Input
Amino acid sequence: MRPRQPVPTSAAVPDAGSHAWRRPWLVGLLVFLLAATLAAALIRSLEQERLRNRHGEVASAAEIRAQAIRQNIDRGLTTVYTLAALVRQGSGEIGDFDALAHELLRVYPVDSLQLAPAGVIRRIAPLAGNEAAIGLDLLQDPIRHRDAIVARDTGILTLDGPFKLVQGGEGAVGRLAVFLDDADGKPSFWGFVSVMMRFPDILVGVGLPQWAAEGIDYRLWRVEPASRQEQTIAASSDTDLIEPVHATVELPYGNWTLSAAPARGWSDPAGLALKSALGLFFSLLLGLLAKMLVEARAHERELEARVASRTEEIHKLSRAVEQSSQSIVITDAEARIEYVNAAFLQATGYRRDEVIGHN
Output
């Protein structure tokens, strides 16, 4: 007889299942890291899209308000051309200037109208409150002379200011040089016609206060021609704007800029925190599901292995019983024959179908 081989002990073979528990956790961790990376990329993309949309909204609103400011100023400057035409028509005189000015002031958004023959302010309507400006020589004034000279030498409409008015307050002046033909038919400088617009009256109807109430900080500014320094015309607060968007207010002789930004900045910490929390939650959930799936698959393989092992054992037992030299009969509880082996059939001479199912 062939000697029986010794069965290896647990110390003789590696325990394959001793590290099996690590694999589900490793797969879950990898899935979590992958899902978290994808979630972070998605959140970043969504945040960038939100910022682009937010910038676009504020920029569009700034452009609309910049156009409204320009329209208000353009309406006021229209009066300058009317005055210049009347001066030329009257050869340097405007009959009943006060009555004419009264009608124009009712229609156009300006505070006063001025006539400055030879550059010296002689007529202002309305005069009340503006008396201090009478007699001011624009070409010699240390503050106003630069813009006045530009208006005289270029013959174009200029917008001077905003600046401190000698009559009090702040304002901007639209100024146009008027030229009349002299005795030889050559253009000769007559003087200036001007309209004065006060601040912040010129900004009424633009919607800047409402904009600030909606959480948008703004700053209307220009580069002062003489000093080349930024000059703030109007602002919602003294704090610096955070990465503002800009809209240009196109005006004669120098543009203004309307800058705007959300008062609390462009970021959305609450929304970003919520998106991050959701991304983390779903990443953890996917990692846990991956771990459970791996564990379920491993358990399934373990059951399959056990079934295969038991089946093999049954097959071996069946072959051993069938090949046994001893007669073996298996019956049910009522003594009906369910199985007989070959030794039984050989010993009794029966066929298998003659005994199966019989008592």
Q: What stands out?
A: The helical segments are 22-89, 97-107, 145-154, 208-213, 269-323, 342-348, 352-355.
